[in-house]
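Practice problem 4.
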């Protein structure tokens, strides 16, 4: 705000709390320095706020810089709009996609978002490369949609609850469990070897023989206890 805009509002504070006298120039400038980057409307609102709420006390006869700033912050905070809540989706509905929750994208095990095979996923894929301000956006999206294979409908299957990643079938889920157990087994062996050697080694890849052995062992134990 300009000095003039500042003065116009600040005079009101001086009228109310300084018996109409102007503050000494240096002190006034401190206020201007603190407030100059705010919108004049913010200062107007703050002065209105202070005029109604401020009680002069012994050690603060005139509203301090902190009081004015606090007024600006509390007004701004009160005017913030809450974010729009996500629309509620019925997970039991026929068009509810369990893989992407009708968002069009789902999190893969590589920790990367992938477009889904459902209708919403198709739409996301088609719209992905069309800039948002393109005047022919709708037509381009429609053309891209025509090129994509038809939707296979909402995806239903299994979701790994711990990491939130998607696995289509029980078989796939089983394979993932075995692979995880194998990884843990290799880690345990390395740790044991290091402890036996009594030295801390850099963790490297295990030898092929050892890996194969661990795979068969992990398969065995996977049959009776699946931790996930
Ligand atoms: Zn989907």
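Answer key:
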């Amino acid at each position: 705000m300009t000095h003039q805009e500042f003065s116009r509002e600040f005079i009101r504070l001086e009228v109310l709390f300084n018996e109409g006298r102007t503050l000494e120039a240096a002190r006034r400038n401190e206020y201007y320095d603190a407030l100059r980057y705010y919108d004049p409307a913010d200062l107007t609102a703050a002065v209105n706020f202070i005029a109604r709420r401020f009680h002069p006390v012994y050690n603060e006869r005139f509203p301090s810089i902190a009081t004015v700033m606090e007024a600006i912050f509390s007004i701004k905070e009160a005017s913030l709009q809450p974010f729009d809540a996500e629309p509620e989706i019925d997970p039991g509905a026929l068009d509810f996609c369990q893989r992407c929750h009708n968002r069009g994208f789902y999190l893969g095990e590589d920790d990367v978002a992938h477009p889904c095979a459902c209708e919403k996923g198709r739409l996301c894929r088609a719209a992905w490369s069309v800039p948002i301000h393109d005047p022919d956006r709708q037509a381009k999206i429609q053309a891209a949609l025509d090129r994509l294979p038809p939707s296979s409908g909402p995806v239903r299957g299994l979701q790994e609850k711990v990491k939130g990643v998607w696995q289509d079938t029980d078989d796939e889920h089983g394979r993932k469990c075995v692979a995880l157990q194998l990884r843990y087994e290799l880690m345990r062996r390395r740790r044991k070897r290091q402890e036996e050697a009594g030295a801390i080694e850099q963790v490297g890849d295990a030898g092929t023989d050892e890996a194969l052995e661990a795979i068969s062992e992990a398969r065995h134990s996977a049959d009776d206890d699946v931790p996930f």
